[in-house]
Structures are given as structure tokens and as C-alpha cells.
Amino acid sequence: MPVIEELLKQGAEVLLASDGGSLALLKAEYPALDAFELPGYNVRYGKGGMVLSIARQLPSIGKAIGHENKVVMSMVKDHKITGIISDNRYGCYVKGVPSIFLSHQLNVRVPWPFVEGLVRKIQYMMINMFDECWVPDFAGAPNLSGELGHDVQLKDVKYIGPLSRMQKLDRPITYDVVAVLSGPEPQRTFFEEKLIDQLKHANLKSLLVSGKTKAPIGITKEGNLEVITYLTAKDLNEKMSAAKLIVARSGYSTIMDLVKIGKPALLIPTPGQTEQEYLAYRLAQNGWFSTHPQSDLNIAQALNDLKSEEGKEMTFDHTLLRGVISDWLKV
Question: Does the chain have fewer CB atoms within 10 Å around its N or its C terminus?
Fold first, then answer.
């Protein structure tokens, strides 16, 4: 969203393309922009590790990327598109059209060291199909992505600074806990059930945002627990700013939002998702947030452990992003 906002500020005509919940969210946030549906990768996640689950589906994912590339080429021709920014979608590039790959995860972590080099080689080959790679982080320390986004062997990498749709707001504390759900099924539902079970029995004023972007907005209450299907970025910013503690997954976009808001947070990585496990552990070790595995989730304990109602902050104002986009639009 910060990339979209900056493009619009600099006078670019922006077309949106995605699928599933991401497309629904973009349509809700930017109703005035044309939005198109891309073919989904349709990755299915079981109860085991995500890496192994994805490995089994690589042939179908490869076909989906090829299909995606054909759709994008058709869109470029039909709508006279002169530039592409792809947020982690490997098929969204066209030769001869300035194409950007946007990602923090340039060194995929896998649980089998003997295949990590091969995985990285394939990933770099795919990213190098794009003209540039933009990393939403700082090049030096301190940074948020650690080994995931640094020490990379790619042809043209630019660090554009952390990006967040949120703002730091000074709001009185009205919730003990605001829990924000995201991520794939079935783990999203498992996480939701565990949160509701703890929060509805606790003497805490709590809000749970389910993250169901394709569902109508609905609110239910059970004691001190309020559950809402989803919130727009602006409303979510207000709710999170009024929380004593935020509970969320350790996805990178969520982490950037939490740092921008400057609130204490409990990170619960999606089980088996190596990227989230690495980020949660690294940030907890560096004193940014606390973390629990989903199996040992204990919100009451996390609240008791709070030393302050203020979280650690990192200054980022999108200056780097502004300059990189300005240069790109001149191409």
C-alpha cells in the first residue's frame, strides 16, 4: 500500500492486480482504481511443515507462475502498461517493460541445509528475470529482515526502507489486547480458536480481528471479547494504537506495521513457516518483541511480562522509497 500511495503522489496511473483475499483488500482500500484478477497459485497447507507442503506442490506452482506470466503479458498489451511492480509474484514481469520484484525474503530458509544452495540458485534465477529487486528494509544495521534480505547475489538490488501503511498515533489505552489474524488456512483458524478460548475466559477487554477480507464486515461480542471480521487500514491503525498488547503473526508486513506503531507485541509464528519462525526469534532476541509458539500461547503471561506500554521504534519515513520510485518513473 505505501508503494501504491507513493506512485499516486508522483502522478502515476496505477492498475491493481491480485487474487483472493489480497485482491478483496486492495479493492476495499482503493475503490477508485481499476483492479484485475490474476491466477492464484492455489497453494494448500496441511498441518505439517509449510516448506515440505510447498515442496510437494512445486510442479503445480510452476505451472501457475507460467499462466500468471501469460496473463500479465496480455494485460500489458491490452492496457499499454509501461511498468510493473510485483510483490513476491514470480510471473509478473515482461521483457522490455521495466519490471520490479519487491520482497524481503531473498534467502529462503529451508530445514534441509543440503538443498538450501540449490533452492537459492533457483530463486535467484527467477528474481533475475526482473530488472530490479527492491527490498523493504535498510541495507545496514539496524534492520528487520536480517539474513532473509541481506547478503544476496542478485544483479540489481535496492533497499527502499521498511514500508508501513500505519502511523504512530497517541491514543488512550482502551483494550488490554488487540489480536490480528492473518495467513493461510488451516492455521489461521487454529490460531483463531486458541485466541478466542483464552480471551473469552480472561478478565481482559479484547478485540480480535479475524482477517477474513472476503467476508462482510461483522461484529460479535462474548463478554469482554469483541470479534470483527476485518478492518480497513485506517481503522486497524486506530485499534492497534489503543492496545496495551498486540498479538499477531510474525509476517514481515505485520512486523513493519508494529514497528511503525511502536506498541508492544506478542509474535506467534505460523507453525512450520520457517520465515516467520526466524523473524520472531530474531526480533525477540534483539528485544523488539516477545514471542510464543502457537502450542504454548499464553496471553495472560505476555501481559504480565510487559515492562512498558511503549514498544521499540525504528524511524522510517519512506524517503528512500520516494527516491527510488522517482528514478524508476523516469526510465
Answer: C
What is the Cα–Cα distance from 133 to 140, expressed in whole angstroms? Answer: 17
Q: Which of 162, 4, 29 is nearest to 85 (CA)?
A: 4
> In which residue are the cell numbers 533457483 written?
122
Dihedral (C-alpha) 236, 263, 244, 247: value to the nearest 10 degrees? 70
CB 157 within 8 A of CB 260: no
| Burial category of 31 from C-beta neighbours within 10 Å (exposed 0-12, middle 13-18, buried 19 and up) | exposed
pTM to 2 decimal places: 0.89
State pLDDT tens for residues 128-184.
999 999 999 999 989 999 999 998 888 899 999 999 989 999 999 999 999 999 887
d(CA 199, CA 310): 22
| Non-local CB neighbours of 273 within 8 Å, separated by 6+ positions | 50, 183
